[in-house]
Specification:
alpha/beta; 9-stranded mixed sheet
């Protein structure tokens, strides 16, 4: 591990926390880059640890780093990392995503934490923010080393890709037209030798933009949350990148997650239905429902749970991990 140089973070480092840049490799051979936040009072051995990622299209200098830092200030060693193809992590071509590779990114982060001398490998949890909330649940279903999971202001990306917001496009014809559009774009990209980008937050916003788009703009396009490496702050993902998400069901086995899970959402979040439905999937007919928790933050929007310290219940999150990881 090496000390990080002066770089742009969207938050100030707390006095009782250290930050160290690290590199590790997933089992696809992609080198990932992260920041380890640790309490200055951390023990030399036996610490509980957390891996943190998200939002989808963000970088570790944004919300995931903020979460990791505040968890470190509460006694955890926390790794915020850039996923494959994004930020300072490796992977080419750039700005791609994959439900398989991104789930592996979380599991590789657990690998990395497990072999650090100051970490107890039996005391590791994960936090996924926004689209990485759904990916975190998929990782928790796949990897029993993960002792507890928080899915904060979560998206189920596979559901949105296949069905649209609020399932408004949940029909075969809509999916067929989407697949045709992606196929057409693949041909354009193959001819040009480049990958067209789209999906960054619109700037300026159209007059009729929905409130959640205004909230995204207020975070990603202003000094509050803008980062030069963030896909959402700039030109977005490769257009063809998300094609596999529409044929994937990230939450297929969440009812088999035996470890503890907190689903955290804002009362006014446009994405709230995805978190509530995920919680139902984990509890309605599962024998492992007892250690699942749904937390709805009064008055909070989707983006409030990115960085609003008056809304993010860090004390509650810390208590949850203390009870289930430490």
């Amino acid at each position: 591990m090496k000390k990080e140089m002066n770089e742009h973070y969207t938050f100030e480092l707390l006095d009782n926390v250290t930050r160290t840049k690290v590199h590790f490799t997933n089992h696809f051979g992609i080198e990932l880059t992260g920041d380890v936040y640790a309490p200055k009072s951390a023990a030399k051995t036996g610490n509980a640890a957390l891996a943190v990622c998200g939002p989808f299209g963000a970088v570790k200098e944004q919300a995931s780093g903020l979460y990791a830092m505040h968890m470190a200030s509460r006694g955890f060693v926390a790794l915020a990392f850039d996923p494959s193809y994004c930020g300072e992590s490796g992977g080419v071509p750039r700005y791609m995503n994959s439900p398989d590779i991104n789930t592996e990114d979380f599991m590789a982060a657990v690998d990395f934490l497990s072999v650090q001398q100051n970490i107890d490998a039996e005391k590791i949890g994960i936090i996924g923010i926004c689209g990485w909330g759904g990916i975190a649940l998929n990782a928790a279903a796949a990897d029993p080393r993960i002792k507890a999971t928080v899915a904060s202001t979560m998206y189920d990306l596979s559901r949105v890709a296949a069905k649209g917001y609020n399932d408004a496009s949940d029909n075969e014809e809509s999916r067929h037209q989407m697949r045709k559009a992606v196929a057409k774009q693949r041909l354009v990209d193959a001819k040009s030798g480049t990958y067209a980008l789209a999906g960054g937050v619109a700037d300026p916003l159209p007059d009729d933009a929905p409130q959640f788009a205004k909230d995204y703009h207020a975070y990603y396009k202003t000094p509050r949350g803008y980062h030069e490496r963030s896909l959402n702050s700039n030109d977005g993902w490769a257009v063809q990148a998300g094609s596999s998400l529409a044929n994937t069901k990230l939450l297929a086995y969440v009812d088999e997650i035996r470890s503890a899970v907190m689903v955290l959402h804002g009362e006014n979040a446009h994405s709230r239905y995805m978190g509530e439905d995920a919680f139902k999937s984990m509890t309605a007919a599962s024998q492992y429902a007892a250690n699942k928790e749904l937390v709805i933050v009064p008055g909070a929007s989707h983006c409030d749970l990115y960085d609003n310290l008056a809304k993010i219940p860090f004390e509650h999150i810390a208590e949850f991990f203390t009870a289930n990881v430490q």
